[in-house]
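Hey, resending since the last one bounced:
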Amino acid sequence: MGVLRARSRAVIALSAATLLAFAGAADAATPTPVVAVAPNDTGGTIVANASNVVPSARQLAWQRMEQTAFVHFGVNTYTGREWGTGTEDPNVFQPTGLDTDQWVNTLKNAGFKEAVLTAKHHDGFLLFPSKSSDFGVTSSSWQGGQGDVVKTFTDSAHKAGLKAGIYLSPADIHEAVTAGGRYGNGSTPKAVSIPSDPSEVVEGRTFAFTSDDYNTYYENTLYELLTRYGELDEVWLDGATPPEAQKPQPYDFGNWITMIRTLQPNAVIFQDGGPDARWVGNENGSARQSEWSVLPYTGDPATAADRMLAVPDGNGAADLGSDSVLSRRGADGTSAWNLLRWTPAECDATLSAKHNWFWQPGDTWRSEADLENIYYESVGRNCNLLLDVPPNRQGVFDQSAVDALNAFHTNLTATFATNLAADASASDDSGTANTAGHPATAALGGNPDSSWQPTGSTGGLVLTLPSARTFDTVSVREDLTIGMRVKSFAVDTWNGNGWTQVAADTTVGNRKLIRLPAPVTTSRVRLRITDSRANAAIAEVGLHKRATGLAATFDNVGTSDDAGTATTGFDGAGYSYSRTALAGAGAGPGARITSSGMAFTFPDVSPGAPDNTVAQGQTFHLSGTGSVGFLLSASCGHATGTGHLTYTDGTAQDYTLTAPDWLAATPPSGTSVAVSSAYRNGPGNTHQNVTSKIFSVTVPLASGKTLSSVTLPSGSALPLTCTTPALHVFAADVSNRVVSLRAHADGGYVTAPNGGTSPLIAGSTSVGPAEEFDLIDD
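The structure tokens again:
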């Protein structure tokens, strides 16, 4: 990865050892990863056949991971380069604090399902001992030349249940510039046995190839990686070529694929031309709005499942798989293609805001908003996200990088932990019928292998929610075991009298995420398939509310100026808290209120603006440990409901919240009076000398877990009518919050509790060299 990214477009024939070969043209009606295209197939036939192209088992598992981390680590970490020179002193590599458990646990806690390590980057430095080269860890004094980063990494990954992959760069500058080097030396290919050293043979498995010097070297190191470190889930390749080479160096991709398929048959192979996954065409983490997984190619259908094939018009082309591309004709009028193949995209990006792949002094990390955009434009556009997270010179992730990843994951968890449509009922829209075995309810079961399927290329699915709910994000998934078929769809909401379209998009694939321009509230939602290549198979329709703080959910005005009561209605009957009386009781706008052993900030809003949330299942972001507390009250009687807490590790915990009536003389057990004001306001600028209260409640969090988001109970409803109790929340906080002062340099890292109005870090004068400081509310 990195600058000067060169791409190989060579089509290399596979050896006879290829395992997954097609005996001939596949029956287009049978779902399969490869379908042959006959010269005289019409565009309509080719498009129809594309609907029956499906992923292999390894591709399907890979796509459903959605998030993979890239770990760039090597001599460049210590030299400040992105591409090394190949002449580095191996002794510069000194990760004296190497902690791959920290890598793996950080990534797993941040939602990643796999990590891919640079076992060798373009400079040629090996992070593992090899019988074929001493340019690597064996020549460093680190761990007395006995270190093996690949082993510690894969051991950590396997122990934690994180999938592990390796990147063995085909490029090798060290072998290009060193006297007697093997890269680009013009050697004549000859018959070789891999591994070359008989003592390296594992379980009797050897390979007979015809290879030049460099390919023989590469094949030996690849064999070592594929046989020493347990199961590998991805082998990441590219086509980078160093300009230092004396002569062009061919890469025997065919041999390499044969080795991978034999020694690690479940591993996905990534390269620009596949065979299992392809580069999206940029390093910004952004997929096309219409990102098809089925692409057309020229090649042999019998071997295409195990061959790197050039993507039509190049990986960066604006359109790779639309009907018009699939229907393209050659100069003789026949199809421009020989086959269709399932080749999903991978979107790579850096955590570094400066687009560095390796750790660099003074680097900064992408903001939470930037990472969120990358997620929606990759995972949310049918593209797996590959996000680079580089260890520092000690061999660990910077704490600031860990914080950035945690904030990213917390944000996503707060948004997607709750599917507001999970308890909806589902039915076919008027005029739509479903195919046998694919009822409307299948789109809500949470099973990616079951789906709703209309009988035609268009159709509607109606979701009826138990009550009106507010959402701003729509998630749609296709059942990939049936294929990728949707060309366009729309989302409608019911306004009480008819349907209103709130979103429209193109392809779906593994997942399509739509962020609405504004939240919508409705009790009925309709998904309309407006065009598809064949009967669409919808595995999921999800409705979500993007992560926000509690204040962003405020939907009720509960306080009023004594001369402006007409603007409020805390209880639906025209009564409200008096801002003046609350301030007199210590609860003015923005005041800190201590109750139940916790400190809360009272809403600081303009008069007449919403200042509390009527609990209807809203989810908001809140991060911390210990206990979560609420400032709350109820109108028209005591209110009780069950919500849930979501943690950064993805687990959830139900909790019960009870709010006493705001006029209650004595709070029930488990609640405390936080504020007691002398009077309340009523209709017509009247004042009622009755004590109105706000209470506090705390809920213990699971030990050892960090809260990610809070979902309020959903028993209340708007508009308020005072016929049933309603639960109102004014503030929420956690007992253990941390404000971090982050130094973006090779310097220090300090934290201090966020407990009041005193200076953040009393008496501190320095935290080490820094370019900038950020206050991070964790």
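The longest strand covers residues 512-532.

Sorry for the duplicate.
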